[in-house]
Amino acid sequence: MKMESTTPQAKVMANILKILTDKNLTQSSLCAPLDIAESNVSKLVNNKTKLSYEMLTKIATFLSMSVIDIITYPDKYVKLSAS
Known about the structure:
Layout: H1 8-22, H2 31-34, H3 38-45, H4 53-63, H5 67-72
């Protein structure tokens, strides 16, 4: 079940790949925090399986980032204060 590259998941996965590259990490470095095999990481990266919110939070923790910052990467989410 390959998803279109314009899906929200595809955009988030593209951001995760950019972050990994920027931090000099490999796709296989996601195996341990997600507790999945390298072949399953490949399926995630290629949008052949769904990225759950639980997986996304584990990736965010591993990368020392918030989920929203992964979604908006390279921009950072800044909450506007109420006036």
